[in-house]
From TrEMBL:
Protein name: Ig-like domain-containing protein
Name of the coding gene: jam3a
Gene Ontology molecular functions: cell-cell adhesion mediator activity; integrin binding; protein heterodimerization activity; protein homodimerization activity
Transmembrane regions listed in the UniProt entry: 242-263
Domain (Ig-like): residue spans on this chain: 14-132, 142-235
Listed InterPro entries: Ig-like_dom, Ig-like_dom_sf, Ig-like_fold, Ig_sub, Ig_sub2, Ig_V-set, JAM-C
Record-linked Gene3D superfamilies: Immunoglobulins
Length: 309
C-alpha cells in the first residue's frame, strides 16, 4: 500500500505541472502580442524605410491590421481596410506580416506611427506598438559671405548659413581647399591665426587679419544625411597704406582751403552783399490830383511846375 501510495504521488505532481504549463501555453497562444525591431527610426529623405510590426503570437487567421500616423497630436489613417491611404497612398506598401514599407521617404513623413492588430477570437484580442520616424534632410548649398579685401590688422567676419537641413547642419570652413581646424591653437600650421570658428552658426571671425589669411574660402554644411558646399570666394589682404591715407587727407584739406578762399573773394567783391530793403526802397505814394507832398520835417511848402491854380 505504501508503495502504491508513493507511486500515485509521484505521478500526480508531473501531471499538475503539465496541466499548469498547458494552461499557460493556451493563454499565450490565444493572445495578440506584437513587437518591433526599432522604436526610434531614422531615415534619409528620398530613400526607402521599413517600419516593423511583428506578430509574435496570434490564433485568428485574418486579424484586422491598421497603421495610423500621429503628427502634432492628430492621428490619421495610413493603412485602413486593406489599403494605403493619405499622403502615403502611392509611396508605401504593407509587407507580411504587418510591416509598413515607405518607398520614398519625405520630410513630411516625420511623425509617430502606430501599428494596431485586432483578433476577436483571441483571449487578448488587441495589441499596438508606437514607432517614431524622423526623416533626415540633406543640406542645400549654403549661402556664403566672404569680404573681397581687408587690410592687415583689421577685423573680418565670414558667414555661412543654410536653412533646409534636418537635423540642423554643422559648418566647416576651408581655405585653399584645406580644412581649417575649429581651434587654430591645436594646429602648428594655424597656431598664429586669430580666427574663431562657430560650427553651429557658420561664423568665421578674424580678430586681427594677417597677410597669410589671404586665400580662397568656402564653407561646407553637413549632417547625417549628407553634405554640400558653396562656391569658393577670394579674400585679399593688403598692407595698411599710410602714404595713401596721408595724400587723401592732404587732398581733402587742400580742397577745403580752396573753397574757403573762393567764398571769401566772392563776398569781398560784393556778389553776396545784401541790401536793406526796410527803408531805402520805400517811395512816397503819388496822388492823382497832380500834387506832391513832401515830408513835414522840411518846414515849408513848395510849388511844383505842375501846380495849377
Amino acid at each position: 500500500m505504501s508503495t502504491c501510495k508513493h507511486s500515485k504521488m509521484a505521478i500526480g505532481r508531473p501531471t499538475a505541472v503539465f496541466v499548469l504549463f498547458s494552461s499557460l501555453c493556451y493563454i499565450t497562444a490565444f493572445a495578440v502580442i506584437l513587437r518591433t525591431t526599432n522604436k526610434d527610426v531614422w531615415a534619409n529623405e528620398f530613400e526607402p524605410i521599413e517600419l516593423t510590426c511583428l506578430i509574435e503570437s496570434i490564433s485568428t487567421n485574418n486579424p484586422r491590421i491598421e497603421w495610423k500616423k500621429i503628427k502634432n497630436g492628430v492621428p490619421s489613417y495610413v493603412y485602413f481596410q486593406s489599403k494605403i491611404s493619405g499622403d502615403l497612398e502611392h509611396r508605401a506598401v504593407l509587407r507580411e506580416p504587418a510591416n509598413l514599407l515607405i518607398q520614398n521617404a519625405s520630410r513630411s513623413d516625420s511623425a509617430l506611427y502606430r501599428c494596431e492588430v485586432a483578433a476577436i477570437d483571441d483571449q487578448k484580442p488587441f495589441d499596438e506598438i508606437l514607432i517614431s520616424l524622423a526623416v533626415r534632410v540633406k543640406p542645400v548649398a549654403p549661402r556664403c559671405s566672404v569680404p573681397e579685401s581687408v587690410t592687415v590688422g583689421s577685423t573680418a567676419e565670414l558667414r555661412c548659413a543654410e536653412s533646409q537641413a534636418f537635423p540642423p547642419a554643422h559648418y566647416q570652413w576651408y581655405r585653399n581647399s584645406e580644412e581649417l581646424p575649429e581651434d587654430p591653437k591645436t594646429s602648428t600650421r594655424f597656431y598664429n591665426s586669430s580666427y574663431i570658428m562657430n560650427t553651429e552658426t557658420g561664423s568665421l571671425k578674424f580678430r586681427i587679419v594677417k597677410k597669410e589669411d589671404a586665400g580662397e574660402y568656402y564653407c561646407q554644411a553637413r549632417n547625417e544625411a549628407g553634405s554640400t558646399k558653396c562656391t569658393p570666394q577670394l579674400m585679399e589682404v593688403y598692407d595698411l597704406d599710410i602714404m595713401g591715407i596721408f595724400f587723401k587727407v592732404l587732398a581733402g584739406v587742400t580742397a577745403l582751403v580752396f573753397v574757403t578762399v573762393g567764398l571769401c573773394r566772392i563776398q569781398k567783391q560784393g556778389y553776396c552783399s545784401c541790401k536793406d530793403h526796410g527803408e531805402s526802397d520805400y517811395k512816397v505814394p503819388q496822388h492823382s490830383n497832380g500834387m506832391e507832398y513832401v515830408s513835414a520835417d522840411e518846414g515849408h511848402f513848395r510849388h511844383k511846375s505842375s501846380f495849377v491854380i
